[in-house]
Amino acid sequence: MTAPILCCGEALIDLVPERPDAPALIPRPGGAALTCAIALARLGQPVALVAGVSTDHSGARLVRALEADNVRTDLLIRSDLPSTLAHVHLSDGDATYSFHDTATAGRAVTPVDVPKLPAASALVFGGISLARLPSAETFVRLAETAEVRGPVLLDPNIRPALIDDAAAYRATLARAVVAADIVKLSEEDLEWLGTSPQALLDLGPSLVLLTRGAEGVMAIEAAGQFTVRAPVAQVVDTVGAGDTFVAGFLAGRSEGMDLCSSLAFATTAASLSTVRVGADPPYLSAVRRAM
């Protein structure tokens, strides 16, 4: 059996406006780890989600969404605490978020709750699971100790609305960068961190991927850097685009693509995800047609 890619972090419900100017909100499965896991499965990769998920109605909805796309759910950590809710605010297609994340199933995950994990072909972690204890310690420690045959990829996906203690959060992210082989981050993430791609490389990763929206992605290695442009898209919203990019990149590498081809595949997948409401990653057939 092929070793799965492990997506580690949060699974939550996004409350997405039906239209940018509409008061009606549509509940959609979301969260960085869950969206990345579904995107990987739709791209034909074996994948499992490691996340705290509630036994409430919203948690059951999340599990059904994962099972519908053949994401392994046997590593979920279930509890009767409530599900995290993210209220999505859209402006010209760009998303910002406010959260309901007090004493939730995802946030409450501790290191002793994590089940024995299988050997992984890659590991993805980050997102809001790193913003608050105890989940932050849980997922950083997992990245530091898990048996991984391939790369460990960190996507900080920084959400300032969730940060209670900026100094503690920066310390957590520094540990996370050291544990990672690849760091993917947005220009907004880089600005909040007040750092540079080279400074991140100096902490140990071999590759930094800086996503720049419609401008594409810049790949930075010790040997140099280059940019892959993003396809033109009629953007509805950007919810889940970064997570879909991560999935596309890892899927490309898993299928033997070189770095440039993997980035082109990833930017195409991410672009396709922006033309639909909410986190709704494309299937492999759609990405291939668009390439």
Structure description:
This protein has helices at residues 32-42, 57-68, 135-145, 166-179, 187-193, 197-202, 241-254, 259-273, 284-290; strands at 5-9, 12-17, 25-30, 47-54, 77-79, 85-91, 94-100, 122-126, 152-155, 182-186, 207-211, 217-221, 224-228. The chain has 291 residues and is an alpha/beta fold. The chain is globular and about 50 Å long.
Number of helices: 9
| Main sheet specs | 9 strands, mixed
Low-confidence regions:
none
Order of helices and strands: EEEHEHEEEEHEHEHHEEEHHH
Question: How many extended strands?
Answer: 13
Strand order of the largest sheet: 5-4-1-8-9-10-11-12-13
Mean of the pLDDT scores? 93
Termini distance?
A: 29 Å
Question: How do you describe this structure in short?
Answer:
By secondary structure, the chain is α/β, with parallel strands linked by helices. Helices cover 33% and strands 24% of the residues.
Descriptive terms for the model:
291 residues; alpha/beta; nine-stranded mixed beta sheet; four-stranded mixed beta sheet; 13 strands; 33% helix; 24% strand
List the helices and strands and how they pair.
Layout: E1 5-9, E2 12-17, E3 25-30, H1 32-42, E4 47-54, H2 57-68, E5 77-79, E6 85-91, E7 94-100, E8 122-126, H3 135-145, E9 152-155, H4 166-179, E10 182-186, H5 187-193, H6 197-202, E11 207-211, E12 217-221, E13 224-228, H7 241-254, H8 259-273, H9 284-290
